[in-house]
């Protein structure tokens, strides 16, 4: 049991170190995947499109860097900026969403990349604290498992 806990502890420790060391690559990968999701955005049921809509609605943002990122997509040429960017769903008309100047007044202008990364970084201290607490419990479990093993081994010799 102590060996299993030690293995899990080492895996979590390695994952945390790798995440910290490669955090810039993770950001770059997220940005490129978000750009790709915008390019392939459509109104059919698609996981990536739903994720983009959810991010835009939740964080009150639009596009990767700003709302004008949608201008480079095929979806914009057909339907304009998605409704998930609208500040008010009742006030967004399709003709307004096809015109960038008019859309600026109706949609969130801030990009999602900065908001997502800043939200993740602000929550990182909470995640680190919880991870540290779990690691402490794992270490206590490892120590107690080793003590129990030693106690059981010592008692077997006394019984004979």
UniProtKB/TrEMBL annotation:
Recorded topology in the membrane: Multi-pass membrane protein
Record bears the keyword Membrane: yes
Signal peptide: 1-19
Transmembrane parts of this sequence: 126-152
Pfam families: Tetraspanin
Broad class of where this protein is predominantly found: membrane
Keyword Ligase on entry: no
Keywords of the record: Glycoprotein, Membrane, Signal, Transmembrane, Transmembrane helix
GO cellular component terms, A-Z: plasma membrane
Subcellular location: Membrane
Summary of the function given for this chain in its UniProt record: May be involved in cell proliferation and cell motility.
Protein name stated in the entry: Tetraspanin-7
Gene: Tspan6
């Amino acid at each position: 049991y102590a060996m299993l806990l030690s293995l899990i502890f080492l895996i979590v420790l390695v994952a945390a170190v790798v995440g910290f060391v490669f955090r810039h690559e993770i950001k770059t990968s997220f940005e490129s995947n978000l750009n790709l999701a915008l390019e392939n955005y459509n109104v059919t049921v698609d996981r990536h499109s739903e994720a983009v809509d959810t991010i835009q609605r939740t964080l009150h943002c639009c596009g990767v860097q700003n709302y004008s990122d949608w201008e480079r997509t095929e979806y914009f040429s057909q339907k304009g900026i998605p409704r998930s960017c609208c500040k008010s769903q009742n006030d967004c008309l399709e003709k307004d969403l096809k015109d960038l100047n008019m859309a600026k007044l109706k949609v969130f202008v801030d990009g999602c990349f900065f908001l997502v990364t800043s939200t993740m970084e602000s929550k990182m201290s909470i995640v680190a604290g919880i991870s540290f607490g779990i690691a402490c419990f794992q270490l206590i479990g490892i120590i107690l498992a080793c003590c129990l093993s030693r106690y059981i081994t010592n008692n077997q010799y006394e019984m004979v």
